[in-house]
Amino acid sequence: MTTVNILSGGAAQGLVHGLAEAFKAQTGFGIDGEFGAVGVMADKLRAGTPADLVILTQALLAKLAAERLVTPSSIADVGRVETALAVRSLDPKVSVKTEADLREVLRSADAIYVPDTKASTAGQHVAKVLDQLGIAYEVASRLKIFANGATAMRELAMSTATRPIGCTQATEIIATDGIALSGALPPGCELVTMYTAAVTARAAHPDEASALIALLTGAAHRELRQRVGFAG
Predict the structure, then answer these.
(1) If you placed Cys at 164, which of 60, 61, 111, 196 could pair as Cys (CB 3.0 to 4.6 Å)?
(2) What is the pLDDT of residues 136-173, one digit of tens each?
(3) Does residue 148 contact residue 120 with C-beta atoms inside 8 Å?
(4) Does pTM top 0.70 for this prediction?
C-alpha cells in the first residue's frame, strides 16, 4: 500500500491513528512515519528524512516555514493540548489547584515519569516548572526521563514504584492503557500548546498530505479531537 509519511509530535499520535481508516477510505493511502519529541522530529526533517507532512508545535512550524521546509499555504492549526498529570489507573488521582499543591505532589512521588526534558514540549516545561517550584535538585534522582511522552506513559503504567506520577501532554496520557489523566497543572504552572500541521516542501504526495490535514482539522472530526485530548 502506498503511504503518506508523517513526522509528528507525540501529542498527535492518537488522533492520527483514529483517522487512519477514514483516510484510507478517502485516498487509498495508508499512514506511516514517526511520532516523538517535537525537536527531534523537526531535526529529522532538516536532516532530510522523507516526509509528506509534519505535525508540530505552532512555534516550531513557523521556524520550519521560515527555513522553507514546509509549504506556508498548507499550514493549519489542529488544536490545543494541555500538559497534565498522570497516575496509574488503579492509583488515586491527585488534585493540584495551586503551585503549593503541585510542589507537595511532586515531592511525595517516588518516581516522576516525563519525556525528554530538552527536545520535547512537555519535558522542557516540566524542567522549567521544577526550577520554578524550587525542587529541581531535590527530585532529580526520581526523574524517569524517556525519549517521548508515549514511552514515558507506558513506563509509568508498568511502574513498580509506590507513588509514581507522570507529566506530559494530555493526548499522550489518554492514549495509554493503564494510566489515567489526573488533571491539568495549576495556574502559574500550566502549559497549553497549539499543534499545527503542514505539507513539507519536499513531499512526495502533497495532495494526499493536504487531504490528511483536512481530516485532522475538519469540523467533522471535532468530537474525535476532543475525545483524544485536543481542545479547539
Answers:
(1) 111
(2) 999 999 999 999 999 999 999 999 999 999 999 999 99
(3) yes
(4) yes
